[in-house]
Each structure stands twice: as C-alpha cells, then as structure tokens.
Amino acid sequence: xxxxxxxxxxxxxxxxxxxxxxxxxxxxxxxxxxxxKGHDIMGLAQTGTGKTxxxxxxxxxxxxxxxxxxxxxLIVAPTRELAEQINDNIGTLGxxxxxxxxxxxxxxxxxxxxxxxxxxxxxxxxxxxxxxDHLNQKTVSxxxxxxxxxxxxxxxxxxxxxxxxxxxxxxxxxxxQNLLFxxxxxxxxxxxxxxxxxxxxxxxIGITAPAETVSHAVYPVAHHLKTKLLLELLKxxxxxxxxxxxxxxxxAKRIGEQLIKQGFKAASIQGNLSQNKRQEALSGxxxxxxxxxxxxxxxxxGIDVSGVSHVINYDIPDTPDAYIHRIGRTGRAASTGDxxxxxxxxxxxxxxxxxxxxxxSIKSKAIDDFDYEVPAPKNNREFKRPPRKPxxxxxxxxxxxxxxxxxxxxxxxxxxGSGKPRRSAGAGKPSAASKTRRGxxxxxxxxxx
Length: 449
Ligand code: AMP
Hints:
By secondary structure, the chain is an alpha/beta fold. The chain folds into 2 domains: 3-205, 3-Layer(aba) Sandwich (Rossmann fold); 214-364, 3-Layer(aba) Sandwich (Rossmann fold), CATH 3.40.50. 39% of the residues lie in helices and 14% in strands. Helix 3 crosses helix 4 (80-93) and helix 6 (128-137) runs parallel beside helix 8. Bound molecules: adenosine monophosphate.
C-alpha cells in the first residue's frame, strides 16, 4: 500500500514526497481513511508510530475545500515541544497547500501570536493554558471550528490539563469532528473519550508492544555506581545519538554536567530550563551538536527525536507505560535502536512488569572490565538525599494511589536516592554490589558488551 491509495490532493501528495514518506505506517493506514470519511477517532498510539501525519494529512485534505482565513482545525497538545513539532509537520506536509498553521503556547510573548492570528490561520496547534488566555481575551475565535484534535491525552491528564480542555471545548461548535490520541487508556481518558467523541472509530497500534526494532537490556548495578556504569556504557557502545532518562530534574542536570566534563557532547533538559535553553538543547540534539541528551520524562514529552540510536534509562521509569513512551524515541520507522536500563535490586518488580508488557524477558548484561565491587563512599551525597515525598509527584492526587501501588509504594523508588533509613539490601555494601554484579535478583542470561 502506498499513499496514492488515499487519493490526496496533489499539493498534499507533494508534501508527503517532500517529507520523504513512501509507505504509510500502520496507524496511518488505519486512521487516514476513517478521518477522511469524517468519523470521530479514538487513536491508541504511542509517539514514533507516525500518528501526527495520521491526523495532519486528512485534516489538510479536508481543509483544501472551504473557506480560508479563520480557524477551522485546532490541535491541542500537552507541551510546547510537541506543539512545535506538530506545527512543523503541518508546515512540511502542507507546504504547497497554502493552508496556514501556527503554534500557541505560554512562556513567550503573546503579541506576535495575536498578530499572526489576525493575519489569518486555518490551523492552530496549542497548549491549553495559553489558548485559554487567547480565548478569554477574544484574540482567538473558535466559533467556526470544524476539527478538534486532542493529542497525547494521557499526558494532558497527567499534567492536570483536563479542566482547561473542558473549558476550551465549551467554546467550540457542537457540530465538529473529534480526534483523540493517547498512548494509554486509563479510566480518565475513557471518560474524556465518552464525553467528547461521537460514535468513534477506534484505531489501535502497538499499545502494549513497542517497536519491534528496539532491543532491550538491563544493566544491574548498585545505586552509587550508576553514573560510572553509564559512562562506561557510553564508552563501550557505538552510539549515534543517545537520550538518557532520569527520574529527577536535579539528576538530569547533574548527569548532563558530568558527561560534558568527561568530554561528551551533551546537554540536559528539565522543567527548570528557560524556553530558550530548552529549544537550544533540543535543536542541538536534533542537528547533532549534542550527541547525548539527558532529560526527565516531563521535559522529554513529545519530543520528536527520530533517529535516536539509544535510549538509556539511568533510572527505571515508574510504570511500564512510561517505559514504552521513553523507548518510543528509538527504533523508529526504518532504523533500529537499543534501550538500556540501569537497574538496582529495588527495581526487580518494575522490570518484571515491563517484561510482561513486552511479552518477553529482557536480557541482563554486564560490562566485563567494570568494577562492580567498589563500595559506596561513606559520604555519598547523591544517595543521602531524602526520598521524594508522595506529595511532590507530578500526577494529580486521584492517581497517586494507583501509580504508587504499581511501584510498590513510594518506599521503593529505587534509584531516586532514597536516603535514610536505607533499605536492608543497602546498595553500596560490598555484598549488595556483588549481588548486583551477579545479576542479583535479575536473570543471569547476561552477556558482556
Ligand atoms: P510521530 O509518531 O508522528 O511522532 O512520527 C514519528 C516519526 O516518523 C516522525 O519523524 C515522522 O516524520 C516520521 N514518519 C511519519 N510517517 C512516516 C512515514 N509514512 N514514513 C516514514 N516516516 C514517517
């Protein structure tokens, strides 16, 4: 099957060629015909599946007919990066269509946005908060909206955007086409889907299995040796571009700095960075100025970093879904990727949960000449820091119980630097270190790199 099957307008076909797309991805194959027919869609797809073009292409097709100069399609996204990415995609795919699109998000001057809306746009890609500002100031009107897309709805929920989304929906015409995309389908998303979608077609791609082109490995190690092992891993592996995930902002920053010290072309992004610095780090990573990018889950949300050769989980994520999201950045379309996860003995149950979702066990590996026996320094500041309190978790209160339960409760936040009192298998004691080296509680099917 190729894109000709969809019979797109020639100017859209030109955009598809310009983007270098030859064959539609599975989500595109399933979603495009349904969107073209005008159906509402519940799309279950993770980043990296080609979901953006799956809604952008039929929206462009629909907008080829009808009026210009007013907002006809709105795409709501959780982060500025994702909004920019979608807007860029529309720019590429719609270059020859004359359809105008813009992104709207906070943290930047509102005036240029107002001026751009005034000049006339047919598509807005927006983060909820700033869009509401515009709606309240009446600098954006959605009174003639035809298509509403809610992208990465699960992330929007996690980030507490649902009340804003409901306010936005009150300001759009009742008669419209709705497309909702989410990588996961927790109860809250189901509720939203029931409220927003009318007789939807469900399109589901790889919700439980990540790209088959990704190979997975865990590297058991004691807490205090994680950074050393990470450096060794990077030295031992031929990597093109590496995305490293940490659980905390502080850690992302610190590891970024350590990598730079060691001579790596590295940058880090975390929530505390200014918009300019985030953009600088992201574009540097995309254009190869930086080979390694260290990020927290929230900071990395929606980033299109196709071509990432390795995802390294310095800290194991909180849920299997988060793991799938993280590794969605590697092994895309035509290329293969590796997903490495540094694990401590605290992470056994999460590894098992991830394996369940993957449907296979993950290889446990070790680096041959790495000294796993080094005891933890007595004054190890990194792991003396008090554990994160449940109240500081980013998830809204109603979901804390569930995610806490999945992790085995806050006490099991393995790599997060849980301080005193230390767990009995205190990482850093030689016995624990050697246990970890042997694979500890992990299967011993390791092989050296
Ligand atoms: P997405 O899941 O929308 O973030 O897309 C992931 C990556 O795949 C992006 O870099 C897209 O440009 C790319 N992509 C989307 N559709 C196709 C396609 N049909 N063929 C090749 N690459 C694609």
